[in-house]
Amino acid sequence: MRIYYNWASRKWFSSTSCTLGRDPHPLSTIGPKAELNSISFSLSMQNDNAGPVIGILTGKGKDQSIAGNGPLFKSLQKNLLQQNGVSYVFTADDLRENSVNGYIYFPQQDKWIEAKCPLPHLVYNRVPFRKIEKTEAFHKASRFFKEHNIPFFNPGFLDKLEVFQLFKDHPPLQEYIPATILVSSPKELKDFIRKYNNIYLKPANGSKGKGIYHLSQLGNGIRLNGLHNSFSFTDYENFWNQWGILLTNKSYLAQKAISPALKEGKRFDFRILAHFREGNYSVTGIGIRQSKKQDITTHIPNGGVMIPYESVRTKEHDEFIHTAAAEAGKLLEKTKGFYGEYSIDAGLTDQGTYVIYEINSKPMSFDEVWIEEKRIEELTRLFFSLAGFSHTNKNSRTP
């Protein structure tokens, strides 16, 4: 079905009568005059309804411009258009009772066009900042989607401590979770350090390895290593007097440090991407990140490098990765809502045991091109499925 958007009248038209998205009102048939000032594209049809129409929910930056992962939004739109679907980007403030003030990307012109869009078949949550998800506008939008039976895909950011506690109580995953506490009092942290000697201090709501420190107890003294700085303290009280306010105000977690397995003298971690597919949660791609300059984190912005999974692959690694991905998805759906996409940061100890460091509900782009391409295909397939449209992949790739 050919669908047209006339930017002068801000109205949608079609080549023959049909509805678009969740709007129950049939579109007007396009006329020669309206067609001159219109942009068109081909959509799939399901019971005289054109789609799928995908709403990508994001937020605004400090300058009130649209924020978020622009390259991801563009890639999704390109693939959706090739598969006879369409997406638009919007914020919670853009939502109206029967329409959305959205932004549609047109690859041929490489430009975004503001448009009055129909309510979408589903919403993909890519709000980039936790503080936006705490606003009344976001909560109002979430309620709106629920009331209108619009699937809300990936309901929100995950709280690290809450996820650790969920996994700790889930037998298939509990062995992979290192001891973790919220830093809330000097005595609790002191006892934790005394018990484990080597710990990590991590922001509860951090990402990309920012703000992580490795703390070790040396006799009565404390050594604190960051990504760029190191600090020494004569005793715990001296450390707490200087760092206690930061650790409690910023909601830091204390986590038992592992002794990592090494490859060529440097630690490496697994970065696992998973999606919901045909009733199960399965692995889409596996990347390996290896530290080079420091051993606190393997994130690439902090000096880590990517190496192929095949260079470390074993049967045991495969089994752990697929178990972790499947069980994490099922547990999140049962306790937190439907997360059709997530990534897992995990590691290997020098004793050959596995550790889950973090679950990310809004993965950033993977540096491995084939993983990112497969991700776009998996998301497109999932969008079609959740929206109730049949999907035939026209761009299938094999890594």
TrEMBL record:
InterPro entries: ATP_grasp_subdomain_1, YheC/D. Gene3D superfamilies: ATP-grasp fold, A domain (3.30.1490.20). GO terms for molecular function: ATP binding. SUPFAM superfamilies: Glutathione synthetase ATP-binding domain-like. This is YheC/D-like protein. It comes from Cytobacillus firmus.
